[in-house]
Records
---
Amino acid sequence: MSRIRQLDAHVVNQIAAGEVIDRPASVVKELLENSVDALATRVEVDVADGGSELIRVVDDGEGVHPDDLLLSVSSHATSKIDNADDLFRVRTLGFRGEALASIASVSRFHMRTRQPDSDTGYEMEVRQGDVQQPHACGCPVGTSIEVHQLFANTPVRRKFLKTTSTEFGHITEQFTRIALANPRLHAVLRHNGKIVYELPATDALIDRLRLFYGREMAEGLIQVESESEGGRLWGYVAHPSHSKSTRKGQYLFLNGRWIQDRALQHALTEAYRGLLMTGRHPIVFLFLELAADDVDVNVHPTKNEVRFRDSQQPYRQLLSMLRTKFLSADLDGSMSMPESNANAQSSPTPERKLELQHELADWAKGELASWTSDRSPVFAPQAEQSATTLAGTPPQFAPFPGGAQPGEAGPAAHTADEAHTDLAGPHGPAGRAMQIHDCYLVVETGDGMTVIDQHALHERIMYEHLRNRVLEGAVESQKLLVPETIDLSARETSLLLEQQELLQQLGFGIEEFGGNTVLLTSYPVLLSRADLVQVVRDMAEQFDRPGQTPTRRDTLDELLHMMSCKAAIKAGQRLSNEEMESLLAQRHLIDDAHHCPHGRPTALVLSRAELDRQFGRLG
């Protein structure tokens, strides 16, 4: 039996590295936190190949004393606490004294540093745990740390790194957290020599949020603030019209430290209850300031989990603050028209307005004529044409017959005197159908009646059509004359660019534009009436599933589900008789018309016998 023995310092450091440093983003996080603790006013981060080859962090902070250089890469050596009692009143981001030693044990580590009152700088190198003696060098005030070939001496760890874009996405997320918590810090991020972020120092957090998330998001934020005996809570929360399918948009900071806390997340859910759809999560940027001895940050090596002395106090404060704000805020949705050159030019004359209207009408007529000659609408105008058209040409998400738009009672829409239509379905006896609540179709059958959810049925039809097109490699795509710019988070941007090939298979053209912006260059014709910007954002959220590594097939199927839902007619959308006929005809042309892609039933059947029994007509 093996005897117990003391592990050497190098093995101990590698064990600690497994807890603290699990990917390049962890290195960036620890080094940026050290820069903030050193009171830096400017920090520059350079990354190569997603951080696997190089991570360089340069700051203008206080630097490291020459006599402390060797200690800085030793285990449990720190300048931030002195004794055990200090663990319960931590005022800095770092305090464990493990980060630099862990990083140096699994990389080629190089540090240059100079303090403000010194004329000479010093540098030191550590090669996979082998520490070289420091020596004098010339360098500016502050500290520069380079981490080369991360995990080169632990190939098993290196093998588990993801793609370059994925790893860089994690790095940008860590950079974002530090930048949001410290808006007065001038921060720069480069990848492979290209500037990704250049964030000037600012006193207004909203300016930094605008740079990260775009003007539209920033304008939809609501400023909140609350003070109590326990502490101060302030920041911005998004209007309910802005939400995400995950909690990725929730940034909670405690004394400048990004944290995860289930109680606070639950408080957010309760505050937004009734304002968001099921399955959606609010977007918030909130900062909690508490006395250092009211919170314990020594819970987990990553320092992201905390314990509150009174866990109910921040919960109540957050919930009360948001509910009070929402009661007094205008939460009605708003819309705005795109800006034009109207500010630079004088208003057109009445004659010119009339001329423009005629030009627009002529253009629209020509477009409609060319469109109808090239495509079959989703609902055929004649019942006898429906089956032929639907069997030969898959449905398109296109304008409705007679020119009626969704929700409009156009020339072909049914009226009070025309509330039902006679149907001669290809798979059943003649019956009558009518729409109720602009949501359900009630169809008479030979042995009773069927109630159909129009959205669920059309969603299944769209899903079957789109899936077949994808399998055949024949998704119809429409190029945009002017590509659409879409602002996303850094991680969402990297995930979308990583899945360019898959998105191309679905008919989406996505290209890199710079920073957190992508270009939408083409889209599937099926989604011509959908909000394309929101569809792309939803797809990015689909890719960002923490703790999950879905297969390509699963990912593709989830995207097909989402796209078919976006393309389908909606509940509350009035249909004409011809549209109802066409939709019901399509029901018989797909394999599984009983359930939508999400598993909800598309129809409920009520037999004649059951009707007779309920009305007491039996016996």
---
Amino acid sequence: MTIATMITIDDAPVNETTLRKKSSCNTMFRIALFFISAILLPGAIHAQVQIGVDANYLTPTQSFYYNDKTNMTSANYSVTRSAKKISLGTGINFGIHGAYLIKGVFGPELGVTYQESNNYVAHYDMTFFSSESVHATSELSATSLQGFVGVRYQSNYVLLKKIQPFASAGLLLGIGTRHKEVYHEEHYMNPGPGPATTSIIDQQLDYTGGTAYGIYFRTGFVFPINNRLLLQAHFSYNGLSWAPQRAKYSRYIVDGVDQLPLMDKQDKEVEFVESYDTSQLSPDKPDQTLKFNLPYSGIGGGIRVIVVLGGAD
């Protein structure tokens, strides 16, 4: 329960909670007025507003998945595994960017990027004597919307009369992230003396929820095309990981028969939690298991086209 105290100013009763709200509104109004002025009147405070669009390509930095090959005979049993660098934050991304640079040199920046990851396929091959074999593939892909906020430094030092070095860094936030895992399995059995059989399984598991947190870093050069148009080439690094909140089968077919209508909710859905009690699990509720992080880090480069809205020489 909240108890609002009453204070008196010049014999007029004023609610203290109301005063705090008015103060917060005034502060927010001043901040909004500052940014509006920054956009409309950058020359008045010797600042430069930049708006840009960019395209980037990132490659993975983490080993996450592996290929698995198992061979079993009457005389030998062997497993061969190979690590593979995989990150669901790699591939091509496109974004928009805004920066407010005091005297065209230093200031805050923010933006948003749409990321569609490369598809990664892991292979599993298992042979058991000569009567049974399994070949399976697991394909991973993801999409996400990433927002970033940080600071940008664009040096006044000019190379070759025109080129300006720059660097920027800050916080990276992944929202609306969706990860898809598509699994296909062919299970061959020839026990003899009867006919050989092949069983086929197709699954799709969709991971959603949760927010990815991380950092980003960019550095490179800005090439002026004219006073209002700039071209930027840069090196990029994103350090990011994502812990999904839930996963759900959207497809589960065995030998042409849809299994989803036959499955309990516990078999179709899972929640990723900090801790759980098996005694509380129920067939009519999603299963639970411990949280884990998927890699979204990447390293690469890109280009950006920048329009200068104010403060250009």
---
Amino acid sequence: MFAGLNAPRYHAGAMSRPVARPLHRLLEAADARRQAIVVPGVTEASYGEVQEQASRISAWIVGSGVGPGDVVAMVMGNTLEFVEVFFGITAIGATAAPLNPGYRYEEFKSYLQDNKAAMAVLEPGSKSAIDACQALGLPHLIARSSDDGNLVGPIARDIASDLVDDVDLPALFLHTSGTTSKPKGVPLTHANLSISADNVVETYHLTSDDVALCVMPLFHVHGLVGILLSTMASGGTMLLPPRFSAATFWEDATAHGATWYSAVPTIHQILLAKGSDVPPPKGTFRFVRSCSAALPPALLYAVEEMFGTTVVEAYGMTEAAHQMASNSLLPGERRAGTVGEGKGVDVALLDETGAIMSLGGPAEVVIRGPNVMRGYRDNPRANADAFVHGWFRTGDQGVIDEDGYLTITGRLKEIINRGGEKISPVEVDAVLAAHPAVSEAVCFGVPDEKYGQEVHGAVVLNVAVEVSELQQYVRERLASFKVPKTIYILTELPKTATGKLQRAHVARMFLER
């Protein structure tokens, strides 16, 4: 055990420390003739073409009076235009603030005000976003390609002098998911983002020969950094369907030679169910990555068997510009049930006395590294709570073994305390999800007069099964105090826009009954 910054030992994995770069340099480093983005059945663009369109956007933004440090909101789906606008905004030192196109009018107003946006770029048909911009008097551009394929007119000026190389400027502004508290604003710099992207590249040995199939929304850090920016940093190609569709997934993957994809467990589960009807071609992918939510080992093994490839689980969060830890591909080791080792990121544990531990647990997971944000915007109280001894507190509880592999045991606020016994809901989730009749499971604590809290659960079933059978299944695999007292059967579980299960929301559903 040790305290403070002078830690003699930590687990960061065997990786080199990447050099920070402004994001537009990612595009410039690639072969301009190589395919950067392919929208299956719609369009495609080379690195050179993405750069040219980004330059047009940059010129338009500068001409509108936006400069370094200004925030430009984006309301766009997974399109080529999103990519071009994002790089156009960040190239001149402005900050891109992507928003979920599915928000309603009041949500757009709230987020645009919180972002302190100077202008917005919207996709056609974004009526609620347009109305919100008009109500706020916010200038906005509709990103609609003209007959010549350009979003804006000819470049009226040379923007070379406007390109910004200051890697400490914020390039991206996102909000935390807000699953356990009010969403907090997270500014991420060019350094945070480019280093995180390079960490992903090195973790999975990505090269210009790799083709990523993007099934995550680009307004989320998983899709934006874990897939888009890492692909651009490797000089590879990204397939960008407008939305995830299990019906066209394998057709797109095989037609365009996809070598990997990254997704939340929910999407893996959907593809697995689809594959039960029409078995997918095995060995299509070099690897499959899972992140943003716990991956039950049973699901991992099922996907590996059906897809005929290695599945690796990673650990990421918005405040770390996505990836913090990951399991390794060969010649490294993949350990189901863990999120692997720190990858270019120092990972440790914070015990109840405030000391930093390099292994052991369960205790709070803390991280530090050049990809980690410097602080939430305009939120000194949250910052005071979030940082200790130079480490960022993730709010997750975990265990680190002798080899540096991290196992996440749950969110600290979600750990169930049943009569003094601390129960990880993630552990019970995994056991329930392993039952052949269960496709999804989530467990949570509810108030109890006798024990303080009791374990309850909710499941989505593949086939009918008695609740008593599910409880017995858990009882045979876990201590009796971990067995859910009540299990609710639902047709679907509530999720965020990125497919992450909302444990706290499920708990509230039944507490309010």
---
Amino acid sequence: MQGPPTPVPPPVPASSVVNVLTYHNDNARTGQQLNETVLTPSNVNAAMFGKLFVISVDGKVDAQPLYAAAISIGGSLHNVLIVATEHDSVYAFDADTGAALWHDTLLLPGETPSDDHGCIQVTPEIGVTGTPVIDVNAGPHGSVYAVAMSKNAGGEYLQRLHALDITSGAEEFGGPQAIQATFPGSGDNSSGGNVIFDPGQYKARPGLLLINGIVYISWGSHCDIRPYTGWIMGYGENTLTQVTVLDVAPNGDEASFWNAGAGPAADANGNIFALLANGTFDTTLNAGGFPDQGDFGNSFVRISTANHQLATADYFTPFNVVAENSVDEDLGSGGALLVPDLTDGGGHTRHLAVGAGKDAHIYVVDRDNMGKFNPAGNGNVYQDIPGALAGSVFSMPAYFQGVIYYGAVGDTMKAFPFSNALLASSPSSQSTNIFPFPGATPSISANGTSNGIVWAVENGNVAVLHAYDAANLSRELYNSNQAAGGRDQFGVGNKFITPTIANGKVYVGTTNGIGVFGLLGH
């Protein structure tokens, strides 16, 4: 670990800090952190702000770093940074100094991380890919939940759910729990009337979701290597026992959860929203307007969790789903965001969600009536905005003050405002720089409604952290290549990473560590 070039301030008292306990800050996946009192558009510049230090770890950091404030470890309070790696490690660091607090390997004796299955998407090894989730009230001290993939000496692939004590890394609740599942169906890898989950065919690519005491895990594949289908599973957070399972293509194939690492979103009523990858979609609908075989490939879905049981409750599917599926042009490359309640021109409250994928359309759905499928066109969806983005989406947006921020492939970072609960078809502002593959997933810091900053990481041989004025993206406040002599360069780009902002610092994952940024000389 490189030491900080300047003295690092002591931890800020818990009353003035914020937790980041799940992917993109909240279960709506807005990416906004509205309690940032240190970083402002006036002090985030190359003269006052920059790299403080880099924390080294033992593998790629594809999961978003998480932050838990004021945790008592060893008799002292620490703001704790949780970092998971593809080498099957979970670390806890002091978020202010970078000092190691604990390190836990999720491998059992004789195991290694999984190989990459001949797929370049997560390589050279697969361990912890999806962002963990933290419940600071679980167990005696708070718990970190993570899914780890491994391979034993006999060549068997395993997936396990771990619950780790946030103060020590010790396994909790009798874990880890081996992940197995079946679901009624005749689709890929089925036998005797059930589809069987094969741990070797999947990776827990999306972030974990915790709602109402259940940890939900959703699964992507290794490239498009069949057999695979679309699994989501729920496990009790205090028992690690499997509570519920759903396959969204049980009588077909593919339709998995990729989402560029974005966790499924959830509303206050426990409904889960997600974008599905290409796969079988039954264009023959039943009397309720649902696919007659229960296959929802390339759809925007609402999944009910009533009585802790998963069930597809509503959906939207583009009219040209068959054509898109045939050329791998799916929605599931992006993540879903739930928009805070808006009022339309008629005074009605709208519950909306936003998503985009490889076809570069921005789809806005009414969460109460998503639109289902109409082969004649997309007029049944709340809004379909083609042409707003210059490239495909392999990321997810962020939200702040009535504006959606998107970073598509080969495109600028763009701001799309809502007006009367309708999203603009052209951006109100955009960055001057273009983001290469896979685009960027922005995060927002602000102090309530003021001092909004959009943070985004540019993938490349030299990763670049960008900061923009949220009110005008053409005003770049800072990027990590501005300072002379490479002062703020922090590592090789990592395509999945989402920046985390807390307590005056920005944390960015790389292929072998975490870059930590903040005000210099404080």
